[in-house]
Amino acid sequence: MMGYLIAALVILLIIGPVMWLKPSPGEARRARLRLLARELGLQVRLCNLPQVRRARVRREDTEQGVMYLLPLPEPGKLRPVDYCLVRAGAGESWENENAEPLPPELQAAVQHTAAALPGDAVALSLTSQGPAVYWRERGDEATVRALAAELGTLRARMAAALAV
């Protein structure tokens, strides 16, 4: 009997560290989402999520999240842009963090995209690199595909509205 107990203990000591290396179900899901995003042409970056002005003034802790960026094919052929909409969470209104307005047709596209974003998206930005969504990755593969489609539409509108 003691031999079985020692054998079981040895097996557990061998298997235990291996199980620590195995990703959790949540980590595996996020890895699948990020792989799909890269396959759809999005750049995936871990980052601090942008905060609304109220959170910055209160010096609240920043939350870690992910930015999905759809790069522009020819960024040098567009006027420089730095535009960002931020919200505190799902159901909150979007706050415009910009001094300069966008062209009306691009502003309409940004509003349409913002309305279509999942609830865990906290920011939508337009930069000279391309449109990007900052989010907490609580969606599924369909959410990533929808994000890629929305960013693709927004990138096309950027190219048309900001061409030099």
Structure description:
- The structure is a single chain.
- A 6-stranded antiparallel beta sheet has the order 1-2-6-5-3-4.
- By secondary structure, it is of the alpha+beta class.
- The protein starts with a helix and ends with a helix.
- The chain is built from 5 helices and 6 strands; from the N terminus they run H-H-E-H-E-E-E-H-E-E-H.
- Helix 2 runs parallel beside helix 5 and helix 4 packs antiparallel against helix 5.
- It has one domain.
SSE topology sketch:
Elements: H1 2-21, H2 25-39, E1 43-48, H3 53-57, E2 64-69, E3 83-86, E4 95-96, H4 104-116, E5 121-127, E6 130-135, H5 141-161
Antiparallel strand pairs: 1-2, 2-6, 3-4, 3-5, 5-6
Helix pairs in contact: 2-5, 4-5
Keywords:
164 residues, alpha+beta, 5 helices, 19% strand
CA-based shape: elongated
Output the strand order for the largest sheet: 1-2-6-5-3-4
Which regions have little confidence, pLDDT < 50, spanning 5+ residues? none
Order of helices and strands: HHEHEEEHEEH
List the domain count as a whole number. Answer: 1
Q: What portion of the residues fall into strands of 2 or more residues?
A: 15-25%
Q: For the report, how would you describe the main beta sheet?
A: 6 strands, antiparallel
Helix content: 40-55%
Which structural class is indicated by helix and strand composition?
alpha+beta
Tell me, rounded to a whole number, the average pLDDT: 88
Q: So what's the oligomer here? A: single chain
What is the end-to-end distance? 82 Å
